[in-house]
Amino acid sequence: MASPDTLPALKTLASGWLKAMYAGLPDALVNDGWMLAAFTVTGIAFYFAFEPGRRISLLAALRHIFRRDLFRHPTSRVDILHFFLAVGLWIPLMGALVTAFLIVDVRNLMVAQFGPRPALMQAGWLIAAAQFLVIFVSRDFGTYVGHVLLHKVPLLWSIHRTHHSAEVLTFFTSTRAHPLEYLHAQAFMALFGALGGGLFLYLTGTTLLATPVVVLAIVGIFLELFGLAQHSHLPISFGKLNYILLAPMLHQLHHSAELRHRDRNYGGQLSVFDWIFGTIYVPQEREAYRWGLNEDELGDSNPHVRLRDFYFEPASHAWRLLTRRGTR
Known about the structure:
mainly alpha
C-alpha cells in the first residue's frame, strides 16, 4: 500500500510537469502572431510580384491571401478547431513527453564507453556554426525518415492520413496532424538531432555550446513562417534552390489527391534528402491538381470533415487494417 506521502508527492510532480509544459506557451502564441504577420507580408509581396491578372490593391491582395472560400471549406473548419487544441494542448504535451523520455546525451554515453577524444576544432565561431549545422541537418533528416515511415507503414498511415485529408490549404493546416503524429514527429526530430549532434561532438572532441542552441531556437521560430507558407495556396517557388529548400509549392504538391504525388517531397525544411533518395518532384509552373486523400475520399466521402472523426477515425482505419479489410 502506498505511503501517506505518495499522493502529495505525485501531485507536486504532476503540477511541476504541467507548469514546465506550458511555461513557453505565452511566448509561443506571441511568436505565432509575429509569424502570421510575416506570412501576410510575404503573401502580399508574392501577390504583387507573381499573381497573374492581379489588381494593384492592398485589399485585393489580402482577399487573395485570406480567401473566404478556403476558410469556409469543411476541412478548413476542422483545421481551425484543431489549431487551438494543438497549440494549447497537443503540441506542448507531446513535446513534454519527448523531452522527458527521449532526450539522450549521446556524447557523454560515448565518452563513458570509449573515453574522451582530443579537440579537433579550436575557433569558437567555427565550432558553434558546425554544431548548429550538424544538429539542424540531423533533425531535418529525422523529419524526412519519420515522414517516409508515416507513408510506408500501414498503421502509421492510418494516423498520418488525417493530415492529407485537407482539401484546401490555409495556414491553419500547418497544425493539421493527429496528436499521435506530433509524438511521432517530435520523437524522430529529437532522436536524430541527439544522435547526429552527439556523434559530431564526440568525434570532434567538443562540448555543446550555448550559441547553437539559441540559434536553433531562433531559427525554429522563423521556420514557423515556412510551415505557414507550405500549407497555403500560394505556389511560392525558390527556383534552383528548390533542390535544397522545400519550397511551399513542393509541399503543396505532396498534399495532392493524385496518388503519383503522395510519396514525393517528404522533407521538412530541406529538400536535399528528397533529391538524394529520388523522392523529389518539382511541379511545373501552375501545374493543376486537387488536394486531398485520393479521388475516392473527397467531398462527401472525406472521412475527416468533423473534428471527432479527425481524432477517432484513425483507430477504426487501423482496426480495418489489422482485420484485413480494405482500406486506402
